[in-house]
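Problem 3 from the worked examples.
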Amino acid sequence: MKYVFGVDIGGTTVKIGLFDVEGNVLDKWEIPTRTENDGEKILPDVADSIREKMKQMDKDAIAGVGVGAPGPIDAGGVVHRAVNLGWKTFNVKETLEALINLPVRAGNDANVAALGEMWMGGGKGYKDLVVVTLGTGVGGGIIVDGRMISGSTGAAGEIGHIHVDDTETDVCNCGNKGCLEQFASATGITRLANKKLASTDMDSVLRGGEVSAKTVFDAVKARDPLAMEVAEQFGKYLGDALAAVAGVVNPEAFVIGGGVSKAGEVLIDYIRPHYEKSVFHGCREAKFALATLGNDAGIYGAAKLVLDAVADR
């Protein structure tokens, strides 16, 4: 076995990568995600694209295809509804295997991305880690002893939906109120900043301009007092939540990714003090690092899913 495909299915595009077994990406490309008619074309499109690439390859040298997709996917490859794709409950692994006649492994996209960061990214060198993705929402993936934790229905690692605030009256996208995602995502940080701007007369470079997670942390770097208060709120919510996570899985490291992580080490400067204040002493030494694979984390992790399955045979 020399090669493996990694597939990351997003709501707009499907990213596909061809890797060697050492983790080197040999080629990568994208195809549109066709979500109409309950996403019935998505896996056939993936199969067609991979088959086209395989025309130039020795099929016997291909270990298989790994897939990450948004939504709970259990260890058997069954997706339990993926709303963004239009998918209901069905077996992704078996469906794609029938289309492509190669071994397939599948997992939740955030969990799979965590596996990628452990293998070739910001978590390289660690076997027990938690990856937190701060984007439009807050995603997460948990790796224990080098293996991705899926949970009974594939919903493990939903860090963004840890309850952190009893006073919140707005509803999270999941239907609950007071989720971490409402305070630590890019949209959550923007929300915190707008509330702060409305509740105080403090001078700030954020007044009268665009308010976003990026402009908030740019203002933090410029030592803007209001922005720094917002960052302190963000850091407390996330630091306290990660302290709770640490008490359950005791990771060696937390790897922070997603669009917000482009702010850099300043994020960790605001998260770590609250984490260390709240965490159980046996977990206090966990390292914090930034993710390095960016949008490619999913295809790396999907490829690693297959290689781990091959190693277990």
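Problem 4, a separate protein:
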Amino acid sequence: MSSELLDALTALEKQKGISRDVLMEAIEAALVTAYKRNFNQAQNVRVDINLANGSMLVYSRKDVVEEVSDSRLEISLEDAQAINPHYALGDVVEEEVTPRNFGRIAAQTAKQVVTQRVREAERGLIYEEYVDREDDIVNGIVERLDARNIYVGLGKVEAVLPVNEQIPTETYRPHDRIKVYITKVERTTRGPQVFVSRTHPGLLRRLFEMEVPEIFEGIVEIKSIAREAGDRSKISVFAHNDEIDPVGSCVGAKGARVQTIVNELSGEKIDIVEWSEDPVVFVANALSPSKVLDVQVNEEEKSTTVVVPDYQLSLAIGKRGQNARLAAKLTGWKIDIKSETDAREIGIYPNENSPQLIVEELENDMDDFDFYKDEE
């Protein structure tokens, strides 16, 4: 019995990563349960397992009291001192009560309880592993689909990709390999439940950290992200070293870095703009790829009025207002876009009190990539 038990404990410790102490506690709890259930006993008991000789002994535990109210749980001081004169009030007297046929019944019950405890311990380990990975990106395999959710295998656990976290333009099929962002990990009666997303802005952030060494090393910082998953996103970046071009670092040579991310997100267009603490500059940058003539700021209302050339108005606003909407979300400022003609008619442009801002079109490699441009 002892060698078999030792071998089983060693195997479980290696294969499942569950410590021997946890398994021993599970076995002892199982034996206590078996004793109380099969022998109709209600007293406090302790089980002692001797791995050296394989013995399993049951001891009743009774508190030493002056007056006994329940003989199953208490023993008088006089009776306790009859067993050992050194007993005093408050001590616990133990007496072996191992039944003759306890071993067979205990083994059957212990097997069931130990199996359950091992399963719970495994679930606990999985929970601890994945709760530490919240807000991180992982690789998974699409395992199955139902009317609303997609279930993604992450190795030890199956994650849920809810319908509202799926990119609308993507089609998922079993065995597809996808990258997902862990948004939440919960404990449930059936084990840890992991929820993942393909639409969360954090997915975009993690992808850039993976593709751009300067971001991973902290040289370039992602300041904000505005995303409409599957269609278009904007990110603002800032370099802590003046010699580093933050936008160029994210774009990469001939757009290789950002194109890798675009491909991972099934063609989602990505605008990368330089962050500035000056709202005039930041808002103008955020409306890229359109030209901006002037940005007038209302600090109290945290709003801006932006003047753009007439022929750039539809580009600045974007399809269904998308470019302006993403720029406002990226900067945290309300943005009201007006054409140069309209601005002149109502007398807000040119404005002597507001510095005129001329933002030239980008004259770098980004012009070669259609994911920086919107159709008028």
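Solution to problem 4. The two ends are 80 Å apart (CA to CA). The chain has twelve helices and 15 strands.
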